Amino acid sequence: MDRVSDRMDKRIVAVSPNATVASARMLANNSRVGMLPVVSDRKLVGMIDVNTIPEYDDTKKVSAVMKKPLFVEEGKSIDEARKILIGCGIPRLPVVDSSVGMKCVGTVSSSELL
Asked: Tens digit of pLDDT per residue, the chain (114 long)?
């Protein structure tokens, strides 16, 4: 059975909780993603969907607008990751290694799970 670690993208495009929403938006646009993991000391602390944040919030810190992180552990099955993506209606999930305290080790998208 395929595991998330077999299909995840190990290149992590993430943003710091201290960054501004404007810089997160620019990073997301340049990387062609809408949702970014928020990472502090390599640990997942939140998520930000820049497409749902009004532009007048661009001067705010990411930490002020981030949401509780949704994630999947790298050892979980592809089916489990797919259920989370579909159930939450999001296109991409951070992948964590929970054995070292929520260390962000990659991302997985719906297209990678097909």
From this structure: 789 999 999 999 999 999 999 999 999 999 998 889 999 999 999 999 888 888 888 999 999 999 999 999 999 999 999 999 999 888 889 999 988 889 999 999 888 877
Residue written as tokens 């810089």?
23
Task: Quickly count helices (H) and strands (E) in the chain.
Answer: 4, 5
Domains of the chain: 4-113 (3.10.580.10)
Beta pairing class for 92-97 and 72-73: parallel
C-alpha closest to that of 105 among 8, 31, 6, 40: 8
- 95, 71 Cβ separation under 8 angstroms: yes
Do 85 and 52 meet the contact criterion of CB atoms below 8 Å apart?
A: no
Is the model's pTM score more than 0.70? yes
